[in-house]
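Q: Please design a sequence for this.
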């Protein structure tokens, strides 16, 4: 059954069928051809997969990100980041990375970050003489921080699938997120110095105090959201609703850049994005139900235990597999299907499930910026108005930087767990 499902899924991918439909179709083939389950089992398991309270955070965080983009919050965050790092050579690319880090602290979505920040910074980078493909590659890579720095939609999915505390995952994400952000900023600074780019990046840069005053309400947003979660005021799901109301109030009554038509457009865009993710989760949940019923997770777990004799080898093998899987399968679907299989094996090897969750999220997030199905690539290319093939070679150094950070995250657990242990232990 598992082989038939896998072949069906690969054939569907080969014919460019949507990921969610491909997963659902493979599950349908497995159920109809190899089980005696009634047809009602499929919609039942699909509904069960999405009938979980923490998943309610996903549409609200997506909506919050879209409202931030429309309401002027993202533009003020760009001005603030530029006031901090924009004065040095290569300061504008560094501004891109830093802004994505701040924006990620509320939106939870790398695609939302790509569109919101890229719409402002990609044209600015091109205007300052940076090659268009390089600017798009930088934005796509920097936006990956949207799913590493909490709150993070993939972390919510991992927490639900592996039955791990979402609050612990969120706070553990700060170390890896800051590492990747800092490494990307250092890389673009050195790269721009080497290439001689960005000598005029300080033009039109606001003083730090003036930029801080303009962005004060925008900067207060992650403080309220993350402070509320870690202070025990509200849960991550409730925080997503707070984020929506805060973005709406600031955009309507403080910055006054919203119109009713803008709000409606943001709602419509968010509904479509949320429906896509939920449909993927529903189909992946049905797929996971069938392979679990067939005993595949246990067999894979036993194979890994017998083949990989140490935690170090297990993590190396998992990272290679996840990197390849992330190139072809959407991040949300990969986490929903693989987390219940791999997390118990990781625990068997003595690996903290929160630490393992960060490894999975960071690794699979790379799939968002690697061809052929990198959603961040498509988003950045859409903003820059270039084709994907123009961006690939420019992307390789950024992927290399993130891979180096992934190695540190994998084999240095305190980076992820120290802050978690201080708060929750």
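A: Design:
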């Amino acid at each position: 059954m598992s082989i038939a499902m896998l072949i069906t899924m690969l054939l569907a991918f080969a014919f460019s069928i949507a990921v969610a439909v491909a997963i659902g179709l493979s599950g349908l083939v497995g159920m109809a051809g190899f089980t005696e389950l009634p047809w009602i089992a499929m919609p039942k398991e699909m509904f069960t997969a999405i009938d979980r309270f923490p998943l309610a955070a996903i549409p609200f965080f997506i909506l919050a990100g879209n409202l931030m983009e429309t309401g002027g919050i993202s533009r003020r965050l760009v001005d603030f980041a530029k006031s901090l790092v924009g004065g040095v050579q290569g300061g504008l690319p560094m501004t891109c990375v830093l802004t994505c880090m701040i924006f990620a602290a509320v939106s939870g979505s790398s695609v939302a970050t790509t569109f919101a920040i890229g719409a402002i910074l990609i044209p600015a980078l091109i205007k300052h003489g940076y090659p268009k493909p390089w600017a798009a590659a930088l934005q796509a890579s920097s936006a990956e921080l949207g799913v590493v720095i909490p709150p993070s939609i993939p972390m919510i999915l991992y927490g639900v699938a592996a039955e791990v505390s979402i609050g612990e995952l969120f706070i553990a994400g700060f170390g890896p997120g800051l590492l990747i952000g800092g490494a990307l900023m250092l890389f673009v600074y050195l790269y721009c110095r080497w290439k001689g780019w960005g000598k005029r990046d300080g033009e039109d840069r606001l003083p730090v105090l003036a930029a801080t005053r303009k962005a004060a309400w925008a900067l207060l947003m992650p403080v309220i959201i993350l402070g509320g979660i870690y202070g025990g005021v509200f849960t991550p799901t409730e925080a997503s609703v707070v984020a929506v109301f805060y973005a709406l109030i600031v955009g309507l009554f403080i910055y006054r850049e919203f119109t009713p038509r803008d709000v409606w457009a943001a709602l419509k865009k968010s509904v479509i994005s949320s429906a896509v993710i939920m449909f993927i989760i529903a189909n992946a949940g049905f797929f996971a139900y069938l392979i679990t019923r067939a005993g595949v997770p246990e067999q894979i777990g036993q194979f890994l235990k017998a083949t990989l004799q140490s935690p170090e080898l297990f993590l190396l093998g998992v990272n290679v597999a996840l990197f390849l899987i992330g190139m072809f399968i959407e991040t949300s679907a990969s986490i929903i299907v693989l987390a219940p299989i791999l997390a118990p094996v990781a625990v068997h090897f003595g690996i903290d499930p929160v630490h393992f969750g960060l490894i999975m999220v960071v690794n699979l997030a790379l799939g968002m910026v690697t061809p052929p199905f990198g959603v961040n690539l498509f988003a950045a290319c859409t903003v820059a108005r270039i084709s994907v093939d123009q961006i690939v070679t420019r992307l390789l150094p950024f992927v290399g930087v993130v891979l180096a950070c992934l190695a540190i995250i994998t084999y240095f657990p305190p980076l992820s767990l120290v802050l978690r242990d201080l708060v929750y232990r």
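Q: Thanks. Anything notable?
A: The two ends are 43 Å apart (CA to CA). The chain has a mean pLDDT of 84.
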